[in-house]
Design goal:
By secondary structure, this protein is mainly α. It contains four helices and no strands. The mean pLDDT is 85.
């Protein structure tokens, strides 16, 4: 499905006014809120699938939380 010319002109006008489209960075409400609990459960030996089931998250979200934590833990070492 494609946008009509009038729709495209509306999008262009909105962008010119500074309107941002799509999901913005930092909008991970569930992941940010439940991140510490996920990391604690990983330390306790729970599987990603079990953590997702208990906390009502997807397994991918659990994996992303752990991955972001591991990347942020490595950054200080790289800056030395």
């Amino acid at each position: 499905m494609s946008l009509s010319a009038s729709a495209w002109s509306g999008v262009a006008a909105a962008k010119a006014r500074g309107q941002k489209f799509g999901r913005q960075p930092g909008q991970r409400l569930k992941a940010d809120k439940l991140g510490p609990k996920v990391l604690q459960m990983v330390q306790q030996g729970y599987s990603y699938r079990k953590i997702a089931e208990i906390l009502n998250l997807s397994k991918t979200t659990v994996n992303d939380i752990v991955k972001r934590h591991r990347q942020s833990a490595k950054k200080p070492e790289l800056e030395r």
